[in-house]
Design a protein that fits this description.
The protein is an alpha/beta fold and about 425 residues long. The protein has 2 domains: about 190 residues, Rossmann fold (3-Layer(aba) Sandwich); about 180 residues, Rossmann fold, CATH 3.40.50.2000. The protein is about 50% helix and about 15% strand. A 7-stranded parallel beta sheet has the order 3-2-1-4-5-6-7, with helices on both faces. Helix 1 packs across helix 8, helix 5 packs across helix 6 and helix 11 crosses helix 16.
């Protein structure tokens, strides 16, 4: 085991050094689509300008993880703690700044070079570290342990496919997981896979996203959306991924009722313009949410080109197709839609939310579709009574799973 760990660690470090010259090129290329990659680059190498006073440090890689961390952030702020959030994407950073304003400090996490991580930890000196979901960075975990920073893996999920990948580096993975003070897993299946890989102090706490209720201002905004749209069916396609919009738009154009409006909200804001062009090239009339204007009867696609308003879109919709599930992306979060009472449709690929999706379908809150064509047919077939039943089932489903935030908080802040 020791020899295998040495070899795998050596290989990991070699790969990191080989990748180092490519990092500036990667940031440059990604920045053409999302300019945020060109900003705050020194932070990605451990150089944090601001002095933070012994914060609770939470790492949330992107938008979904930042939103999931919100119940924990609010609890720490209520205790008078200083909170630092690190992200890897500009979208995640922007979401953190939007959600919490100036109440917390937001930076990028350095790449997993030991020298960069050490510089970050010396500058920040966190009292504890919380890694959201499953971000296993060997140097980060090792250097945190050396610095005496208790580290927790929270809201952890691990699909069988991901577990199989980690098994290829079993010694290194085992060493990393052993260095966490505790692990809070979403489900028993996730906990079992993490234990098999080497995690020792594992507790099942459920999914933190169940504890994120729809804010009142978002529900009010949803009512405003309906005023702009008028009395017509609204089919939402939420958090769609690259390649899915074309399938959705083609199926909608071919078979959806003429009075139906497709509210289309891509997962990544840098793709808004691309998707608008795609819809117009198919001959569909498009309006943008950012215009904040009444939706014309001739408009077929209402482009959700805004950030931080997903609850409002769900509140305004008659049903919602959850993106990332038509193609093999593993699916996006369907809990928010259920919490609002919006009937949910999911495609065949929901590995990232496997248990949640299966339970939502079993409890009548969601319907499974095989492809975009079946989405159109099932959405069109939903009666008012069926939508009401699904919406109520979704609310019950979301409410029954609340409590993860308190369980996690007791684990990481006894």
């Amino acid at each position: 085991m020791a020899a295998m760990l040495f070899l795998q660690t050596l290989l990991y470090r070699l790969l990191l050094w080989l990748a180092l010259p490519l990092i500036p090129l990667r940031l440059l290329v990604r920045g053409f689509k999302e300019h945020g990659y060109w900003h705050n680059i020194p932070e990605r190498f451990g150089s944090i300008a601001a002095q933070v006073d012994r914060p609770v440090w939470i790492h949330a890689v992107s938008v979904g993880e930042v939103r999931a961390s919100a119940p924990l952030v609010e609890r720490f702020l209520a205790q008078g703690k200083v909170v630092l959030i690190t992200c890897m994407t500009p979208a995640g950073r922007g979401t953190a700044e939007q959600l919490f304003g100036g109440r917390i400090s937001v930076h990028y996490l350095p790449y997993d070079y030991a020298w960069a991580v050490r510089h970050f930890l010396r500058r920040v000196q966190p009292e504890r570290g919380i890694i959201m979901e499953t971000e296993l960075w060997p140097n980060l975990v090792r250097e945190a342990k050396r610095a005496g920073v208790p580290l927790y893996l929270v809201n952890a999920r691990l699909s069988e496919k991901s577990a199989a990948g980690y098994r290829k580096f079993s010694a290194l993975t085992h060493s990393v997981l052993q260095d966490f003070t505790a692990v809070a897993a979403q489900t028993e299946a996730d906990a079992g896979r993490l234990r098999d890989l080497g995690a020792s102090n594992v507790t099942v706490t459920s999914n933190l996203k169940f504890d994120i209720g729809p804010p009142a201002d978002q529900l009010q905004l949803g009512r405003r959306f309906r005023e702009l749209i008028g009395n017509r069916p609204v089919w939402l396609a939420a958090s769609t991924r690259d390649g899915e919009e074309k399938l959705i738009l083609q199926a909608f154009q071919k078979a959806a009722p003429q009075n139906a409006l497709l509210a289309l909200v891509p997962r990544h804001p840098q793709r808004f313009e691309e998707v608008v062009t795609l819809a117009r090239n198919l001959g569909l009339e498009v309006q943008r949410r950012s215009e904040n204007a009444p939706v014309k009867d001739s408009t077929r696609v209402w482009m959700g080109d805004s950030l931080g308003e997903m609850f409002a879109y769900y509140a305004a919709a008659d049903c919602a197709l959850i993106g990332g599930s038509l193609l093999s992306y593993g699916g996006q979060n369907l809990i928010e839609a259920c919490a609002v009472g919006c009937p949910v449709l999911v495609g065949p690929h929901t590995e990232n939310f496997k248990q949640v999706a299966e339970e939502a379908v079993a409890q009548g809150a969601a319907l499974r579709v095989a492809d975009a064509a079946e989405w159109v047919s099932k959405a069109a077939a939903l009666s008012d009574d069926a939508r009401q039943r699904m919406g109520e089932a979704g609310k019950r489903f979301a409410a029954a799973h609340k409590g993860a935030a308190e369980r996690v908080f007791r684990l990481i802040a006894p």
